[in-house]
Design goal:
Belongs to the 14-3-3 family. The chain is mainly α and about 325 residues long. Helices cover about 70% and strands about 0% of the residues. α2 packs antiparallel against α4, α7 packs parallel to α9 and α9 runs antiparallel to α10. The longest helix has about 35 residues. The chain has a domain of about 180 residues.
Length: about 325
Amino acid sequence: MDPLNGAAASLYLHRPEDYRAKVREYVQLYATEAALRSLQRLPGEDSRAGGDSGASASSAAAAAGGASSTNGAHGAAAADGTAQVSNNDDDESSMSEFKMVDAMKAVAVMDVELTVEERNLLSVAYKNVIGARRASWRIVSSIEQKEESKSGSEKLDVVRTFRTQVEQELKKICDDILDVLDSHLIPSATVAESRVFYYKMKGDYLRYLAEFATGAERKEAAENSLTAYKAATDIANTQLKPTHPIRLGLALNFSVFYYEILNSADRACKLAKTAFDEAIAELDTLSEESYKDSTLIMQLLRDNLTLWTSDMQPAGDDEKEPDAEAKEGGNQ
């Protein structure tokens, strides 16, 4: 059953728990289909590159939350950094992704404590629509810089118009989830794990705004992102184990914020190294159910440390790969 149709509205009002179950089933189906489409279109893609660590309730949903090849209105980034031309399949995929968002948003605004599965599906749904647009923005911005270096470029105005369109889409998506977080999810969260998850999510989407905003808007987004990440960290450091996937995912994304938004390689490396070392020290206490998720995020922390420390090498040392990007956590 489509949880957005008329029959579902009655279920929403009279049997909310049944409605939530239908939404979970519905979104899991679309998440699985999105993951399969991604694998079919990018058979050689590293699921970690430029995307999410993908720790979530199900492997299919996690895969859908990573670097996606679908984008609807515009192309997405392939593993080699090239733009892919959108087609009818992309348009259909984009519609499905927004249906996932609408379905999970309907549950999120119920002002109840979401289950772990619902929380992860909400994150996956929004990651699907934001991830491809962030990739598109990077590609278009790179093209714009190249066109600016050419005298009398005829393509520059078109590229700038396209970039503006992508930025408007990004802002709309970010504003939407930030409103849901501030008005519903954070006030309704009662357990530490949920509170850390939502404050981390808030920090992430404010960071996405800061990636393309300029001037006072960028400053405000960066400051608010920092505040959200710090709020999540205060809770995580006192109530979650160092090996907990959500605490590790927070450290991963917070360190990316320091590196990419605040341009502070020292703080980024210190945060990532501390999180990695503390988790290593308690690795023997890691539960079997979270072992895979936690160790994957630890690997991403180490990968970023390797990348960032190579960036900090004096001039004349080996050059890093020019298109290398820091790796982020997704649905922890």
